[in-house]
Amino acid sequence: SYSFCTLLVYANGMLERWVASIFSSYLGRYIKNLDRHGLQVSMWSGEVVLHDLELAPEALDEFDLPVIIDKGIIGQLRIEIPWKHFYSKTCKVEVSDVQLVVQPIKGTQWDEVHERKKRRLRKQTQLRIFESTRTSSLQPAPENEEEPTNEESEGFGSRLSRHILSTLQISIKNAVLRYEDSCTDPRRPVVWTIRTEELSAIPTDAEWRTNEGAYKSVSQMYRLCKLKGLTLAIDHLPVAPRLTGVSKISSLDKWKEIMSASSTLISQRCTPDPLDVELRVTTQPSYVALDLSHPKNTVDASFKCLNIRLKRWQYDAINRTARYVADFAMLDKFRQFRPSTGVKGDAKNWWLFAYKCVRLVGAESRMRTHVCWEKLKRRRELKELYIQMYKRSQNVPWRQPLSEDETAHLADVEDHLDAESIIYFRRLAYFQLRMEREQHKDAAMPEQKKEGG
Q: What is the C-alpha to C-alpha distance for residues 275 and 304, in angstroms, rounded to an integer?
């Protein structure tokens, strides 16, 4: 009896440590001044309340958006974890009083280290999508029917993370987003202000019922999202005070005071009546095989009335922003050459900027059209090296696993390859592994017959 109680206490403690580490890991991606150790200790009580948290400048990098965070504050973050009924009830995250100021990436200084991290993150996202959408014909087939499935073979931490993400309730109240654009058209700078009273995402079952414990689905995740009190305003930036220049203020209270004061000057509202929207989101989780006969994400939106009123200059501002977003992927590669000064008074650097952009386009065009034997030879050698190393990284019994140095070398090779090349090389590696598996299966069958005879 004593040993059983000791084991039960140890199991509960392990569960608490795992859950606390999962929450601190996810929140640490987006929050700059998060005390991870203090967060883990506080979670053991079942409820955590944090105040005045600052969003990390790189919080939006993984979404590959054409904007960057200048300043972001979360007034209150509240987390509820039902330890006594962990697998029958849901964890809840409530965020209140969010104030966020963003600006176009076009207007920021080039940071080589930060851009390298963004490229690596973008590449990892593309590779993760490829792995989740890989068809069964490219995957190594199981040798027998008794081989455990992914769900059975995954560890305790993976199952726990999956349970938390699939049943988590999220609520964001009183959020303000300001988009200050003074570089798309410097003669007519504008500020967008988006407000919402509440944004919630609640897990449901296939019938969109929100009763707890009834929405455990393996192949689909269902979320009922409600957006209440959404308003949009577009003002001239000289009328609405600029906030992108006050991000260096160390006092959060002073910054929130400036933010609140600027919000009272908003006058050019595009939505006379606040908008309420209900979204029904269906998602295929990444931990199950992707069903290519259905979309990975499906969103159904419904609202009673949409009333939008625009002035001519507001309509022009929306068009300029839409063009900037559409051309961002093409123009972002030139940002590394862009001068930090204005055109007037610094014509030399801007002519040099134009020259470097044209030279870069010409170099890319020559790389696509000009083919030489040495380039093809290096490409083939790199392909063979990557395929052999990647096959060894898959832990198949007929190949020697990679050492730590070789694993680091494989990661270094991936850093120098673009995502399209890596995906192509991996397709070849998976195809070769499938052929090798068939060969080993055929070679093992005569020996089994011989032993049986």
A: 8
Give the containing element (helix H, strand E) for 337.
none
Q: Map tokens 């995250």 to a residue.
A: 93
* Helices and strands (DSSP H and E) totals, the chain: 11, 8
Buried b (16+ CB within 10 A) or exposed e, 197-216: ebbbbbbbeeeeeeeeeebe
d(CA 87, CA 164): 9
Identify the H or E element spanning 273. none
CA distances from 130 to 226, 289, 432 (A): 31, 12, 18
How far apart are the C-alpha atoms of 14 and 83, rounded to whole Å?
A: 12
Parallel, antiparallel or unpaired: strands 169-181 and 92-104: parallel
> If you count them, how many residues does the chain have?
453
| Helix or strand (DSSP H, E) at 301 | strand 297-302
3-class secondary-structure state, position 194? strand
Tokens of 297: 């994400």
Q: Which residue has the tokens 């988006």?
A: 194
Token pair belonging to 271: 């939505």
Structure confidence by residue, pLDDT tens digits, 401-435: 889 898 889 988 888 888 889 999 999 999 999 88
Residue 292 CB coordination number (10 Å): 11
What is the distance between the terminal CA atoms of the chain, rounded to a whole angstrom? 52
**Residues 238 and 262: beta-carbon distance below 8 Å:** no
pLDDT recorded at residue 399: 87
Please tell me the predicted confidence (pLDDT) of residue 34: 77
Query: What angle is formed at CA 301 by the lines to CA 296 and CA 76, rounded to 5 degrees?
Result: 90
As beta bridge partners, residue 201 has: 170, 225
Task: Please state, in angstroms and rounded to a whole number, the distance separating the CA atoms of residues 434 and 431.
Answer: 5
Query: The tokens of 67 are what?
Result: 């904007």
Residue 432 buriedness (CB in 10 A; 0-12 / 13-18 / 19+): middle
Q: Is the pLDDT of residue 92 over 70?
A: yes
Report the pLDDT value the prediction gives residue 277, as an integer from 0 to 100: 93
Give, in degrees to the nearest 5, the angle at Cα 127 between 393 and 366: 105
CA distance 2 to 325: 64
Model pLDDT for residues 195-226, shown as the tens digit of each residue:
999 999 998 888 888 766 555 555 788 899 99
Q: What residues pair up with 180 in beta bridges, in sequence order?
A: 191
> How far apart (Å, rounded) are the C-alpha atoms in residues 309 and 307?
7
Q: Name which of 107, 105, 116 is nearest 68 in CA terms.
A: 105
How far is 8 from 260, CA to CA, in rounded Å? Answer: 50
CA distances from 394 to 3, 138, 266, 432, 434 (A): 40, 14, 57, 12, 12
